Amino acid sequence: MRSWQTTIGTSPPAWMRYAVSVGSVVLAVIISLVLYPYIEPNPFALFITAVAISSWYGGLRPGLLAILLSLVTINYFFIAPLFTFSTAVSDVIRLTIFLIVALLISSLSEARRISETRYAVTLASLGDAVITTDTAARVVFMNAVAEALTGWTLIEARGKMINEIVQLVHMDTRQKVENPVDQVLRDGRVVELANHTILIARDGTERALDDSGAPIRNEAGKLLGVVLVFRDVTARVQAEVERERLLQEAQAAVRMREQFLSIAAHELRTPLTSLLGNAQLMQRRAARDGNMAERERRVINVIVNQARRLDNMIVALLDVSRLETGQLSIKCEHIDIGQLVQRIVDEIQPTLDQRLLELISPDTPLLIDGDALRLEQVFQNLIQNAIKYSDPLAPVVIRTSEQATTICIHIEDQGIGIDPNELPHLFQRFYRSDTSTVQQTAGLGIGLFVVQEIVKLHGGSVRVESTLGVGSTFSVCLPRLP
Questions:
Q1: Do 249 and 356 belong to one domain?
Q2: With 80 as the cut, is the pLDDT of residue 444 above it?
Q3: Residue 239 lies in a domain
Q4: What is the pTM of this model?
Q5: 56 plus 157 within the same structural domain
Q6: Is position 142 within any domain?
């Protein structure tokens, strides 16, 4: 840990590294001269130490300089005859062995230094803040991001307790939060901070954090310290708060809109009901007495038809409002869906001039559990749409089919069809097709939305198949009773 602490700091200047190399050799010479009587048989020990110090502190080149100075010094001062350079074979062998050992030490030190330097550079270049501590929770290293977030430099923070450098509180309660380093040292496992944690920097600046701590272990599994990694998520937290505020405002606006639609629809239905009732009374009276001019009867029929159309629109708006507020409910009972569709066809057919509704259904009961009134609304909508958008002379076919667990009703028309690009959006609220013929047809674009939601409430599904210029088939599938 001590060597790592040194190498990951600022690298010393070149002159200092070479000065340490020369100084360590000079110191080895002085000590060896003082202790010469005791180390005369083996004068190499102190110089090996000098090479190791030079390589550890300065790197490969200062280490090589220390090796060269040591070889010259040992040969001149400590190998007999003294103050000359010995060329004896035995002395050359001894110096060669020293050279090999010294080069090995220098190479190993350089390899360790390169590895630690790469590790330090990697930590320093991370976008996240990184702080490492020893087993006593004292700061060993911190990268530039950690310096910027905490307000402490590595030189100032090294050796200080982590809780002094990294002060954490809860965003809402302002209570102190246990540092992940302490938790890792206590439990020996990776720890992540809870949400809403705030870092109080040296200058009092507060930042929201997302961080974690992990143990540093050697190959034997021994705990050497802790690495703390964290990032500033203040912008993200602020964005989440702003998004939550906008969401609440949007929800409030939706509630207000739905409330307005509901109130407006109810208020509109009161005079509309009176208008429609009186118009229908006049219509029946004209049909009974037979003394009203044809033009006036047509006017009354127009008033009745338009009033009904407006009433249907208001009912649809009310249904949309109830659906979005979760107030649209169904009252289920056992019903024969075949008989229900038959009754709807029988009611619609007399209102048509030349169009024909063709029902294909078995005589056997087709039992489901559903709300007859709401399902009548579904099939009224689909059949009227088929009539509205199909060829006036072509029949609209209503066909039922049975599967093991479902009963399906298919409404087929031979009309204008639907563009394939519009099919995914067809059941969206207020969606209107771009087809020119459809755009000329009045409507709010909410009928199919209501149809789909009612079918979903019954646990069923609705789908559509269509080809432009050929026609469309809407299929409603509902769970059948066992």
A1: no
A2: no
A3: no
A4: 0.45
A5: no
A6: yes
pLDDT higher than 70, residue 463: yes
In whole angstroms, give the CA distance from residue 25 to residue 477.
94
Specify the number of domains making up the chain. Answer: 4
Q: Does position 5 have pLDDT exceeding 70, yes or no?
A: no
Distance CA 318, CA 377 (A): 13
How many other β-carbons are positioned within 10 Å of the β-carbon of residue 4?
18
**Cis peptide bond N-terminal to 81, omega within 30:** yes
* DSSP-assigned letter for residue 351: G
CA dist., res. 228 & res. 190, Å (int): 10
Residues 287 and 403 in one domain: no
Is there a single domain that holds both residue 22 and residue 100?
yes
363 in any annotated domain = yes
With respect to residue 283, please indicate whether it lies within any of the assigned structural domains. yes
**Confidence check: pLDDT of 148 > 60:** yes
Bridge partners, 91 (sequence order)? none
80 and 200 part of one domain: no
Query: Long-range contact list for 193-196, CB < 8 A, 24+ apart?
Result: 193/168, 193/230, 196/170, 196/171, 196/172
169/199 Cα distance (integer angstroms) = 7
Q: At CB < 8 A and 24+ separation, what contacts does 231-236 make?
A: 231/127, 231/128, 231/129, 232/129, 232/149, 232/207, 232/208, 233/208, 233/209, 234/207, 234/208, 236/208
Q: Dump pLDDT digits (tens) for 247-288.
A: 888 888 877 777 776 677 767 777 877 887 888 888 788 777
Whether the pLDDT of residue 229 is over 60: the answer is yes
Does residue 2 register a pLDDT over 60?
Answer: no
Task: Assess whether pLDDT exceeds 70 at residue 6.
Answer: no
Interstrand relation of 357-360 and 396-402 (parallel, antiparallel or unpaired):
parallel
CATH of the domain at 420: 3.30.565.10
State which of 100, 125, 150 marks the end of a domain. 125
Pair (6, 68) in one structural domain = yes
Residues near 26 by beta carbon (within 8 Å), at least 6 away in sequence:
none
Q: 67-103: per-residue pLDDT in tens? A: 888 888 877 777 777 777 877 787 788 788 888 888 8
Beta bridge partners of 197: 170, 209
- One domain for residues 135 and 227: yes
Q: What angle do CA 99, 101, 107 make, to 5 degrees?
A: 100
Residues 160-199 pLDDT 10s: 999 999 999 888 888 888 888 988 998 888 887 666 788 9
Give the pLDDT of residue 79.
75
**Residue 239 Cα distances to 172, 245, 298, angstroms:** 17, 10, 61
Provide the pLDDT for residue 9.
44
Look up the domain containing 475 and give its range: 333-479
Residue with tokens 């310096």: 147
Contacts 24+ apart (CB under 8 A), 190-198: 190/214, 190/215, 193/168, 193/230, 196/170, 196/171, 196/172, 197/168, 197/169, 197/170, 197/171, 198/168, 198/169, 198/170, 198/171
Computed on alpha carbons and rounded to an integer, the radius of gyration of the chain in Å comes to: 45
